[in-house]
Amino acid sequence: MTTSSFDRNRCTRISPSAVLDDRLDGKDLEWARDHLRRCEACRERVEDFREMLLRVGRLPSATVGSAAMDQAFALSIPDRLRSQGGTRSFELAPALPAPMVPAPHDLPPAVRPEVSSIPDLLTELEREIFRDEPLQDHPMPLSPVPEPLYPTLTEQPEEIEPVEALDAAEPPLREVPVDSHQQVDFTDWDREPQPEQAPAPAPPPALEATPLPIPVSASNAVFDQEPALRIDDEGDLAPAAPPRKPDTAMRIAVGLGAAACVLLAAVLYEGGLLKTTHKVSSTGATVGQSVHASATARASLSPSASAAASASASTSTAPVVYTFPNGVTGDTMFRIRPGTAVAGYTRLVFDMHGSGLPTMIITRPDDLHVTVTFKDTNVTGAPVNGISSYHVTAVEPGVQQAADGTITIDLARPVRVTAFTLPATGGYAWRLVVDLHTS
Amino acid sequence: MDQVHVEAPALQSRAASVEREFYSDFPLVLNYVARLIDDIDGAAAITCAAYRQVADGLRQRPGDAGLDRASVFRAATELSRSVLRPRRWFRRQRAAQVNLEDFPQPEARRALRRDTVQRALTALPFDARAMILLRDFVKLSYDELADVVDVAPRKLVHALDRSRAELGEIYDYIKF
Questions:
Q1: Which of A280-294, A327-341, A350-364, B3-17 holds the top average pLDDT?
Q2: Is the pLDDT higher at A272 or at A201?
Q3: Above 90 in pLDDT, residue B174?
Q4: Percent of chain A, pLDDT > 90?
Q5: Domains and CATH numbers, chain A
Q6: Quick one: which of A435, A432, A431, A433 has its CA closest to A417?
Q7: Of A128, A313, A346, B6, which has the fewest Cβ atoms less than 10 A away?
Q8: Domain map of chain B by residue range?
Q9: Which residues, other chains included, contact A332 with Cβ-Cβ below 8 Å and sequence gap of 6+?
Q10: Which chain B positions have a beta carbon within 8 Å of A3's beta carbon?
Q11: How many contacts, defined by CB atoms under 8 Å, are there between A and B?
């Protein structure tokens, strides 16, 4: 009677229905008790289910009058099954509160013996759990809440007015054990404004002289926020109640807050753009420089002006992280491979043709870029599409400046760079390995 | 002659039993159907039809057995299901209306409409709704419930678990 599964990392080993409906016995019951004592998630689930069970159990029932019952009996039961004489052999009680739905405590044990022991198990559990803290109450008490009598959907009209009178006289009449989620109190269905029934010609001076405490339903948190107005007293209390003002202030405050959020988001977004534009602007400056310097340099900028510019900027001012002064005249850097997919770092492997490793310089123009310059090597043929990871946003296309080729790696976050080289062995070419670690 | 003396008391005792069971259970079945189909106006017709169906079936049953409670609930559930089933290109079957005296009261109709738990119940699939109502509202025992919904008692726990969890989720979603 227990399940063995986890629901989104939440233990669901206990079947709440089995516990609440007392379907466990023997070892299962012992195990469930032991587990409930230790597992808070299961305890919460059982409590949630219990609340839902009580809510459904407390659903009000519509009263059927004796005349309607007789009519239904005549419609439903064939003549041959009716007692002689055509009238029923007993009298129906006129206005029992809910004869069809007995209160849970009054349930006959023969009909539903398993329900009667639900509170015992939970109470016992609660007692055992909080045994060491006798004075501390559990925030969600497991013990059964003493419930009022079952409410009915309909009450006799003549009983309605005394109920309201009682409401005014005795505030704790509305006892709602489960808090504000209760939608409407079932005990007084006539709370809706009924102008034809409530003319209420009460003397206004008495009301003004002694402001009565309005019996607002204390259980409803939504009603608690606007306690000052009652629908039927609106005319009397109109001058004393300017309720729209705080609402307007609240709306303005919320609006300002929303505007601030939007503004903040825009600033953050712009901040991200600013970095890009910063790069672009620096590129612009470099492009200007290169234009002034030589026409050939400008011609070589064709594949990606921005990348080239950032590369030129980086080579001129960026701090050098690694240098591999191998000095061999490289041939081609033909491939970039994302290496081992480990959470801690991203590995990029640059494969090169040629007789050896060229001179390579790894620089960091800023926190979010790493530039690899291959001396005397062609890098324009290396495909760079689709290289991205936790650390790498993208790899920009290779830029050839005279004999040197440059690859710029756009980072997603600041990283620590390590690099090493590998010789050509077996089926592998000459390689430069760049590891980008989470800093 | 002897036959007459033997049969007449049995028939009378069956009639008394039927009468007693009808008057004790009819409001509960009626409220159950009203909750199940979320329509208190159409509930009376379905309930009367269910009782009639079970009463007609008594002809085949020997002895003085009265109206079996589980049978009444099963018939009411099936009739409710058939009423809610779409027919002829999404047109629901129009159930015959039965007008009972002073039923339903406007308060009851209004209460059913604005009840949050009822709205959550209405959002449930039919079988889950029936199971929850029969267990938690009508308070049938597991054996009776298994008989009504035609599910093995051992599987009922898991079925109820799923239904109650779904109801709780829906209720938490719509309660404000």
A1: A350-364
A2: A272
A3: no
A4: 9
A5: 157-241 (no CATH), 303-438 (2.60.40.3500)
A6: A435
A7: B6
A8: 1-114, 115-176
A9: A352, A353, A354, A377, A378, A379, A381
A10: 158, 161
A11: 187
A52-57 contacts, C-beta under 8 A, 24 or more apart: A52/B164, A52/B167, A52/B168, A52/B171, A53/A20, A53/B136, A53/B164, A54/A177, A54/A178, A55/A178, A55/B117, A55/B171, A56/B117, A56/B121, A56/B132, A56/B133, A56/B136, A56/B137, A56/B167, A57/A104, A57/B136, A57/B137, A57/B139
Distance from CA of A249 to the nearest CA of B (A): 23
A321/A312: higher pLDDT: A321
- pLDDT tens-place string over residues B71-129: 999 999 999 998 887 766 655 556 667 888 778 888 888 888 888 999 999 999 999 99
CATH fold, domain B115-176, is: Arc Repressor Mutant, subunit A (1.10.10)
Chain B residues with beta carbon closer than 8 angstroms to that of A190: 107
Helix (H, G, I), strand (E, B) or coil at A268: helix
| B 20-39 residues inside an 8 A Cβ radius of A | 20, 22-28, 30-31, 34-35
Q: List, for residues A16-37, the tens digit of each pLDDT value.
A: 999 998 888 889 899 999 999 9
Cβ separation A114–B14 shorter than 8 A: no
Q: Which of the 8 DSSP states describes residue A192?
A: S
In chain B, what residues touch A155 (CB-CB under 8 Å)? 107
Is pTM beyond 0.90? Reply is no
CB-based burial label for A374 (10 Å; 0-12, 13-18, 19+): buried
Q: Which chain A residues contact residue B49 at CB under 8 A? A: 76
Q: What is the mean pLDDT of residues B37-65?
A: 85
